[in-house]
Amino acid sequence: MSVPRPHLTYDQRMIKELTGFSDKFLPVIEYIMRNEVFHSTLDWQDHEEFRRGALEALGIYMRNPQPYDAELAHNRAVFQRMQAERAVSTAQQADDRATLKTARAALYRAKRREDKAREHLGACLGTVLTPPYDRSPPQVRTEPRTQAN
Description:
α1 (10-19) packs across α2 (26-37), α2 packs across α3 and α4 (65-94) runs antiparallel to α5. The chain has helices spanning 10-19, 26-37, 47-63, 65-94, 97-125. By secondary structure, the protein is mostly helical. It has two domains: 10-63, no CATH class; 66-125.
């Protein structure tokens, strides 16, 4: 048995130990086990039932991997956009214009990657998915703010 990598969840380590699956498949196998095989958490199965569930999940994935791969790619793109938004917010709070310019450019690229990933996921699912963020340009205030009484 190889030493599990630290980024694996407990369930992913169990899947690897009981099946020998490559690390590459562990997140999607865990996802399918939770949501399609057992429709539940994975903490109540004995080892043999868990192993059979992992094998069934692999079979489901291998029959049609595109939607799962597209969903994982979309989830990564969403996470990267959120990280980029945080970088913009941090630069704004620090009033660091150079970093802010770089962070905004990174956010723009992250949103484009997310758009592509969402379009690909929608195509795999046969639907159109809408973006979770506002695509409109930021509003520029022309009159001074007044405090409410």
